[in-house]
Amino acid sequence: MTDVTELEQRIITALDRIAYSADQIASAPAAPDAELVEELEIERDTNARLVEAGQQSLARMERLETRVARLTDRLEKMDTENKRLQAVMGALRETNRQLRAANAEHQGAESTVNTALEAENEALQAARAADLAEMDDILSEIAPLVKEG
Predict the structure, then answer these.
(1) Is residue 89 part of a domain?
(2) Angle between the 34-105 and 110-148 helix axes, to the nearest 10 degrees?
(3) pTM of the prediction?
(4) Among 82, 90, 75, 66, CA closest to 131
(5) Which residues form a coiled coil (predicted)?
(6) How many domains would you assign to the chain?
(7) What is the rounded CA–CA span in Å between residue 77 and residue 22?
(8) CA 55/CA 65 separation, integer angstroms
């Protein structure tokens, strides 16, 4: 009987050690799979690059929006100025027409006045042409930005 008791005691001790080891294994963190860790690192790097690229794109978009707003303001001011210039040019043409008619009736030193008015008219037309060229320049800068939209 002592052999049975002794065997029983040894089996109980062995089962206790097995239970203790199983508890230790269950409570210990599992070793990470090296392949999964590598894939995770790759995904983190890719994610970081995408975030950085997104931030750069956002910053570029903000700069472009600021530039478009600034150019739009310039264009609006030039349009207003162009309308004013057109009104002045219309009034100048009418005044020149009236002066020419008066000069034609009174032939004399007034031809000098007529020549001066024609020169002034040409100068204003040149100023208008320069303004139109500047507006074309601004529009050529805005067009690609609008296409990028």
Answers:
(1) yes
(2) 160
(3) 0.47
(4) 82
(5) 61-112
(6) 1
(7) 82
(8) 15
Which pLDDT tens digits describe the chain residue by residue (149 residues)?
577 788 788 888 888 888 888 887 777 666 677 888 888 899 999 989 989 988 998 999 898 888 888 888 878 877 777 777 777 777 777 777 777 777 677 765 566 677 677 778 877 887 888 788 788 888 888 887 777 76
HSE-up of residue 105 (Cα within 13 Å, Cβ side): 5
In whole angstroms, give the CA distance from residue 116 to residue 102. 15
Residue 83 located in a structural domain: yes
- Assigned token pair, 62: 């903000």
Task: Return left, alpha or beta for 30; rule: phi > 0 is left, psi -120 to 50 is alpha, else beta.
Answer: beta
CA separation for the pair 6, 113 (Å, rounded): 139
Q: CA nearest 96: which of 117, 112, 110, 116? A: 117
What's residue 94's pLDDT? Answer: 76
What share of residues in the chain are helix, strand, coil (percent, to 5)? 90, 0, 10
**Structural domain boundaries, residue 72:** 59-123
Cα(56)–Cα(47) distance, integer angstroms:
14
Tokens of 88: 């002045």
* pLDDT, position 52: 92
Residue 42: what pLDDT? 92
Domain membership of residue 9 (yes or no) is no
